[in-house]
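Re: How this chain folds, sequence and tokenised backbone to follow
How to read it: Take the token row as a discrete description of the fold.
Start of record: The labelled sequence and token lines come straight after this line.
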Amino acid sequence: MAKTYDVVVIGGGPAGYVAAIRCAQLGLETACVEQWINFKGNPALGGTCLNVGCIPSKTLLESSEQYHRLRHGLDRHGIQVDGIRLDLDKMMARKEEIVLQLTDGISALFKANGVEWLQGHGRLLVDRQVEITARDGTTEVVNADHVIIATGSKPIHIGAAVVDNAEGVIVDSTGALDFRTVPKTLGVIGAGVIGLELGSVWSRLGAKVVMLEAVEDFLALADQQIAREALRQFKKQGLDIYLGTRVMGTEKTEAGVKVQFRDKTGDHELVVEKLLVSVGRLPNTANLAAPEAGLLLDERGNIHVNDLCETNLPGVYAIGDVVRGPMLAHKGSEEGIMVAENIAGQHGHLNYDSIPWVIYTSPEIAWAGKTEQALKAEGVPYKIGTFPFSANGRAKAMEAASGMVKMLAHAETDTLLGCHIIGPFASELVQEAVLAMDFRASSEDLARTIHGHPSLYEAIHEAALSVHGRALHKINT
């Protein structure tokens, strides 16, 4: 007879494993189905994010930034360094070690919280049954009072540039995290978050990087004032970014890859040693549910859910990259917590309006809330406060004084509507604005909050003061 659980989670990435742990903490008998096989050939938890996404990419971003700073950023501090040498094998080994530490840590957390890991591919059947297919092809079926689907996403592949990570010439994000030599030239199709981060890694390590982006607006989801500054900074760093381009085809040659692309000036060719295809991601819902289960998907493959992540099937939920909203690990994790608490009879909730976005380039880019262009389109009256890091003492001392903080507040109520940052540690600074928006604070609330001196957080303080023309360390206009 098939075993019955209170909750079965399909997927062990940041959305799924967090949901499973929270369910177990709330006293629910919980199992998590995950099929990932890591680079050592062993089963692993953590999904794309920990294995071939957020964690390895941020590890390489940190390593490459340290290398670049050693070569180019210390002379202004009066520090001269000779004989710098890149050991890429060691850098990659460090990345892999950190990945293993964190994925093994999730396994330990499962054991500590009593979550059972069912290794294999999970498929939803009728009446909340879940079929698990193991690596050897054997299957078993378990029953669940509640099912949480958290199967994540996968890179979009395009016919004009066929990806083969094993060959290592035309790759997606997974392959670009595993180059064993620094390419002399790297082409990147797509100048979004992933393309910019991985392009930055290999640019810092010595590659000439050329990025081809289809849309005319750089970082269209970001506040456009911040995006324009980011584009200026990246071009200054040597990234060649072409907007409004369409890749027509690719051809492998002895020199690497010949890329044919078209823009408003006509047809062009580019030859690069390696090519990264980074044009977005799709929900991983193929072969997820038996047709007779009746799970409702949209035309993109997203699972249809309501505000509480309930699907059209009673007792079946979906979270993370397989549902509407931004494909962000922390968004999926918080949805997992919300669903777990609601299953347990509590009142889980999530404020989708204050989810932070982060791009871990240098300078970092981060934002939460509404952009200026969104407020204009919605007809919301607003005021703007800005403050440049060039006027911040801590940023100057760090030799990281480029960029700004931009704050948007309602013109009538002063409620904080958005915060947009490009500059040092933007990923950390934006969290203050997220907290403020969650508590429905005003720009005046932030302006009246004491911020330590000297600190980068003073730029947040000054931007809040600037909303009402009261900045103290810049000229108010």
User: Anything to note?
Assistant: Residues 5 and 144 are 5 Å apart (CA to CA). The longest helix spans residues 88-113. The chain is about 30% helix and 25% strand.
